Amino acid sequence: MEKQTITIYDVAREAAVSMATVSRVVNGNPNVKPATRKKVLEVIDRLDYRPNAVARGLASKKSTTVGVIIPDVSNVYFSSLARGIDDVATMYKYNIILANSDGNSQKELQVLNTLLAKQVDGIIYMGNKISDELRLQFDRSKTPIILAGSVDSKNELGSVHIDYVAAVEEAVADLIVHGNKKVAFISGPLDEAINSKYRLKGYKNALAKNNLKYDEELVFETDYSYRAGEILWPAIVSAGATAAIVGDDELAAGVMNGALDAGVKVPTDFEVVTSNNSKITEIVRPKLSSITQPLYDIGAVSMRFLTKLMNKEDVTEKVVELPYGFIKRSSTK
Amino acid sequence: MEKQTITIYDVAREAAVSMATVSRVVNGNPNVKPATRKKVLEVIDRLDYRPNAVARGLASKKSTTVGVIIPDVSNVYFSSLARGIDDVATMYKYNIILANSDGNSQKELQVLNTLLAKQVDGIIYMGNKISDELRLQFDRSKTPIILAGSVDSKNELGSVHIDYVAAVEEAVADLIVHGNKKVAFISGPLDEAINSKYRLKGYKNALAKNNLKYDEELVFETDYSYRAGEILWPAIVSAGATAAIVGDDELAAGVMNGALDAGVKVPTDFEVVTSNNSKITEIVRPKLSSITQPLYDIGAVSMRFLTKLMNKEDVTEKVVELPYGFIKRSSTK
DNA sequence: ATAAGTCTATGAAACGCTTGCAAAGTATGT
DNA sequence: ACATACTTTGCAAGCGTTTCATAGACTTAT
Known about the structure:
Strand content of chain A: 15-25%
Number of strands of chain A: 12
CATH topology of the largest domain in chain A: Rossmann fold
Helix content of chain A: 40-55%
CATH class of the largest domain in chain A: Alpha Beta
Oligomer: homodimer
Structural class of chain A: alpha/beta
Largest interface: A-B, 55 and 55 residues
Shape of chain A: elongated
């Protein structure tokens, strides 16, 4: 009637060895005579024995599980990272506990707590606003933590991402080369380091290098939704922008459709560049030119990085920067 | 140096009670004098004690974790379900272990095994092709299982989804009413019950009720990608179809863009209806008319259903059908 | 005052596995 | 044949909780 009745004891008895020996063969410990190993494996097979991972975890103090704190799985950007994470995790025999946080500090703390209670061996955090309290808990915990596709404004935590400053700078420079004097900078909340400290900086760099002066009127702070982009259009028009660099694909699609629906021609009269090169960029018309980030790889590398920390291997660099790129499609000249 | 050193034993000592008592206050067992409870809680707070979920799991034979087998998290359809699942799971104090299967039977079996090894209290399965071997394992396991947004061709397992037959039938009937004599049926693999046994049936029903004869030439079996849709266009043209019902949004976007890129006017010369009403339907131009499914809710309800099974509550119906709808946008007349 | 209940709290046995240590077995060299 | 050095095994002590059987301490009814 119960979940799992066959224990290591049963196997030991049937194979006429001690449970220690069974444990050794299950764990691939080499100190077992081949004949014994074979005998044990046969019994395991016959009894359909499956080691109880919970008991194992208790005894070994390892759960072979890592926690993943994600703002929202249903967002393509994050779910792409998650896919990379899971694939590598599987490769290294780990499972992932996925927990949505909505980027909400309270939930993050709460989630972190239950993850630690579950004795995860490591944590991957996605999110761009690390509250002081969360940082405190991160520091206090002995569990390895990696930020995936997210930046740590204080550079204390291990993280994997691209060089946002340079990427945005290039993209904006390109728009300027096309003759745009007024390029709008459209992003999510500026209290997220990725927007204020990195993307905006790249934007300013580009302006400076091209002798254009920074105009706050051209900076639009909103949230990451498609709808937010659509309704932003009138404001963009009144600011007189002729092009925009957008920090999120859905947002960019919204902005572009907002323009299109208002009868503006893209890219002839208005150019748009977005940042994440998610599927959406290819589905909209015109297709969106975009900074490209290896999303899957960022997740995969983060997880790989984490396995190193979990094995207490030495890692030379705390911050891994993956190469970014730029793909020109039809939303720019 | 280690993960977590404060145990229930430390708390018991500090509070001068037995560990059994500490356990009771932690678990909200009422048989504790309020004064004692208060004292214990204070110590817990002071020591920053956090119960070890693994040890708890071993002792109680409950992991408060459910496994989620998903074809691909980075697919919006599935990640939307996943989001609903996680939210409800959190509500009921469960965590989810997310495992990608790519819809591959081998991986599914393998994943199922590790989930069971981890002693998950329940499993939510997404996928439309349950291999015999997998079904066998499902049956053999005493762990409750629910299919989310997926159908069980044999109707043995609990599941939550919409009435695909009726939904497709309505959508196709609508296309026929618009005067289309040749409506293409475009779906993913026909060896998936959802396509062959349900959607296709709805399609045939609609034809029959409108005195149109079924023509195999108009049935297109492909995979679920955007690209697959794009390259399918020529074939659709040669079959002479003037409208299509598509089983997946990305696929539909591909078909439509394929038409558009070939200079065909949508919906004037060709109408398209899709099936999942994901974000994509609103992002493309023209926006896609779609059958609507409450994706988030399907996930949420599945998880709720699962909690009932895990609590051994009686459930009257094994199959929960959620209401579907239809939203007319600009890809149909 | 006594029997019979309630409440509270304790002790100690699981739960199923890993692992350090020691014992038993084998092989090798002389 | 014997000492030496491995190689294989078994023993038993945890790992941190839950939970069952009990025991004390109070109440309450008689």
